Amino acid sequence: MSKVFSFHGGIHPPGNKKRSTRAAIGKAPLPKTLVVPMQQHIGGPADPLVKIGDQVLKGQLIAEPISRISAAIHAPTSGKVVDVAAYPIPHASGLSEECIVIESDGEDRWIEHQGLDDYRQLRRQDLIEHIRNCGIAGMGGAGFPTDVKLHLSEDHIVNTLIINAAECEPYITADDMLMRERAHEVLGGIEIIAHLLRPSHVLIGIEDNKPNAIHALEAVLKDTELNIDIVVVPTKYPSGGERQLIKLLTDLEVPSGRIPADIGIVCQNVGTTAAVYRAVHYGEPLISRIVTVTGDAVLHPRNLETLIGTPFSTLLEACDLRPEALSKLVMGGPMMGVTVENDQIPVIKTTNCLIAATAQEMPLAPPAQACIRCGMCEQACPAELLPQQLYWFAKGREFDKAKHHNLFDCIECGACAYVCPSNIPLVQYYRYAKSEIRTEQRDQQKADHARQRFEARQARLEREVAEKEARRKARAEEAAKAQQQKAATQSDASPQPAAAAEPDAKQLKTAAAVARTKLKKAQKAYDEAVGTNADNLAELEAALNDARSKAEAAEKALAAGAPATEEGSGDDLKQLKVAAAVARTKLKKAQDALKNAEDKGLDGVDKLRATLVTLENKAEEAQQAYEQAANKPASPSPAPTEEKPAEVDIKALKQQVSIMRTKLKKAESALDGCEDEAEIARMKTEVNELKQRFEQATAEFDKAEQALIERAAKSGIDLKQLRIDAAMARAAVTKGERSLSKADNDDERSQIEQELTSARAKADELNLTLSQYE
Amino acid sequence: MALIRLSSPHVSKANSTANVMRLVLIATLPGILAMTFFFGWGTLIQIALACSLALAFEAAALKLRKRPLGFFLSDGSALVTAILLAVAIPPFSAWWVTATGIFFAIVIAKHLYGGLGNNPFNPAMVAYALLLVSFPVEMTRWTSPMTQHGGGWEIAGFIDTLQAIFGSVDAVFYDSFTGATPLDVLKHRGGLTTEELWRQSDVLSSGVGAWYAVSAAWFMGGIFLLSRKIFTWHAPLSMLIALFLTASAFYGFDPDNYVNPVVHLSVGATMLGAFFIATDPVTSATSNKGKMVFGALLGVLIYVIRTWGNYPDAVAFAVLLMNLCAPFIDQYTQPRSFGHTRANRGMKGKNQ
């Protein structure tokens, strides 16, 4: 016998265990429908492999693990899959999760399965894989996938394997009964796990309130070659807590934030060992477990071998529930168990107990009184914390202090709340504080990400501007050189053809924008297709690549053409003026926004400031460009002066046309309503005159417009298309603004903001171009 | 089926604040009986008066603060405060002395700070200090123990005591029934050595036994509470040990001018202070380590104030000074949590 050490604190609540150990383990009735949740373990939920309508056999794999920490799920009985949807699961949140619902065919027909002949001959890797395929997860409470723990000997030195048979929570006797009746399975499982982990020593920690189980274990241990010791520990809650049990058996403390394997220890629950035994020797996956059904509201409390997915109501009926007496239904023990609100919730791999409690048995907590700092919680805390200080910090939202007082070492065992004379729900306060701190951390991370993204973008934009500038300079130099050479070789060559051959910047810009939009669309379609696993993926991909290359080509052409053209043709003075004005307005707006933000101490100040700086630069640039252009009197081409009148006219003409149309209509309706002959004749001539004038105006307008379109076409722009584009761009901006106001998280918002900025730029650009031609 | 969802744990120990207070009240019984036996009816009358006033003030304060009356009145904390103050003041104190003290304890020291659990200072000690500073004559006119009065075993009658408290009595009454306490005598020694004092003073030579007995009674009550795990041994034991060691050091160095450490432990309010005041959870340090520091400093302060201060007894002032230090002590005496190599100190640590 090994020495027993002790841990700080702990409590001695009434055990209430005897009532459910009188009867042997029974078999729970086969329910009509079984609801099998995809998340019964810690880690990622399993991924369903069956569809509605599929026939399944008992033990058939129906959901596979999707990540390293996850567990396979098997059909608990034979029957038909009738639904794959969200159903309430046994969880403190009371939320629903994805479940596979199986309608039992009553035959309980097994799929073909067989155990491993001699697991010792197998490679360890394969044996662990076999256990993983059987969906074994810790059956003590947390449900940690067992195979992950069995890998631990690969990167840790495992000296001691501890089998947790303490079962310290009141009421629960599932492990007790398992050891009494199936001690050989427990031992068999221990041998398999020991074979995998190769510890030098195996310790079974068991509380002294289970003498029969201890005898049963001792009896089977006589035949084993393993170095196993049963360590009987005094009954004290929470001696079954992993860290507490390790302290009890080895006097070692698992360092905060580390796992037992870091100090050479691996813990397994005694129920898990039996499941491993059945998986290895019989090839049976984990589809049933022993559940203690107890509490004052059932007449015959006992342990039942229950299929996973069996609704609680089936178990309660099997133990003769008195529905009128039931007030609380607890899954797990009274200290850390979860209350459930309805009895249709299914048994999962971690459901070790079901307590149907009466109102007398588990009365509602009386109203909490003031904390008198009596310190009883401190004496009870197994994690050696200062529960009452944590309570004050949680209540006062002083989370830094709570963290400093090691809030996250709290195991939520409930010992403090149990002893509190003021009936303060202490654990609830700690859960609240923990979740608040986690939320804060998540928000902080998000903010950091957004900031990094923004800074990266800012850096990228600056780099791009610098690169552009450098390219422009290089090209200008080259052009100057070429010019000089040309001038030297061919003094009388006209510059006209060269200018004409120069690609039109605007056209290129439009082409590039169109290509970009197409690319985006293609990308979106592709993403959607990937999301939904559509069939035409390859096709879309090809389209996407095509669009991408087109966009790149357009972009390249633009980059090559734009600066040269800008220089070559000489900027339109008006355009520059407008651009400068727009930039100034934007700058002013940004300044106002910044001031507003600073006054209110809003979060985005830094961001706004950065934006402001960029805008200032832009405004300056625009102003400079404008001044430069304005000071260059030699450059204006004759064209604008020629076209100016037409520009002014087009609006007037349009107005004229509409006026004429109205007049004509009026006259016509007057004519219809008139009965006097003489009047009619006079009016008719009037109408005819008006008609003529209207036609004339229309013709004039058409001509002017045609001229405009021609002029636009000359510079490569389809005016109609331009108008449509401008309208669409404006609509995109409005839409973006609307969705920004609706966006509810930072990620989304920053994305939308980016999109909005580009949309705005585009709209501005188009409007500008449009204003030039109208 | 109307099932409810609640946060675990789903069971709790049958315990309540009222129960804690009730046990404290029971633990005061030996002390009260001993005081009544040696100093007369005054103690009981003061307790009755103080308790009824305390409940009245508590109810009024709760009413003004719009708190449920029955819920808070039944927690018994006001009664504990009242009894602690009532046994601390002289048994013949006039009713208005008690009333002022209770008002101050309940309304000012407790409810103005937010009620039970939120008061930084022990209400009874705040009130006692106020009374001692405000009414020094009344507060130092302690009743003589019965063994000392003349040749017989006489204590003041019930009616006389009532008159002394609620009406007025001749000065003769005070002359015959009150006198200096041992600590008074030892303080105002007038050039005599400690040994000479013990021979010359009536109180010291024949009356000090009564004080010893009362201290023993408080000690018994304290042991009872300790056995019921109402508080831990840390604060009282460290206080007594610190007082004893400090006193021993000075006594061993100069026994003529300093008082025997055993006397320090067994006269005045030492035992009452150790088991009923220093253990007040609301106003003392939190952790076990913190309680030890709290108790030890308290013991040293009591000795310092008794020996060199202006007032004969020092428990109230020492406790108030230590109440002031408790939050600070808390910051530096966090326990080492499970799985940690060392305890965190201060408010912000490395593991931030």
TrEMBL record, chain A:
Cofactors (names): [4Fe-4S] cluster
Subcellular location(s) of the protein: Cell inner membrane
Residue sites binding [4Fe-4S] cluster 2 per the record: 381, 410, 413, 416
4Fe-4S ferredoxin-type domain span: 361-391, 401-430
Subunit structure: The complex is composed of six subunits: RnfA, RnfB, RnfC, RnfD, RnfE and RnfG.
PANTHER family found in the cross-reference section: ION-TRANSLOCATING OXIDOREDUCTASE COMPLEX SUBUNIT C
The protein's name in its UniProt record: Ion-translocating oxidoreductase complex subunit C
Organism per entry: Marinobacterium zhoushanense
Lineage of the species this protein comes from: Bacteria, Pseudomonadati, Pseudomonadota, Gammaproteobacteria, Oceanospirillales
Designated gene of the protein: rnfC
UniProtKB/TrEMBL annotation, chain B:
Key words, A-Z: Cell inner membrane, Cell membrane, Electron transport, Flavoprotein, FMN, Membrane, Phosphoprotein, Translocase, Transmembrane, Transmembrane helix, Transport
Subcellular location(s) of the protein: Cell inner membrane
Enzyme class: translocase
Modified sites of kind FMN phosphoryl threonine: 181
Oligomer status and interactors: The complex is composed of six subunits: RnfA, RnfB, RnfC, RnfD, RnfE and RnfG.
Domain of life per record: Bacteria
Transmembrane regions listed in the UniProt entry: 20-38, 44-62, 69-89, 95-113, 120-137, 208-226, 233-252, 258-278, 290-308, 314-332
Role, per record: Part of a membrane-bound complex that couples electron transfer with translocation of ions across the membrane.
Protein known as: Ion-translocating oxidoreductase complex subunit D
Cofactors demanded by this protein: FMN
Entry-linked Pfam families: NQR2_RnfD_RnfE
Primary residence: membrane
Topology relative to the membrane: Multi-pass membrane protein
The keyword Membrane belongs to this UniProt entry's keyword annotation: yes
EC number(s) given by UniProt: 7.-.-.-
Xref: InterPro entries: NqrB/RnfD, RnfD_bac
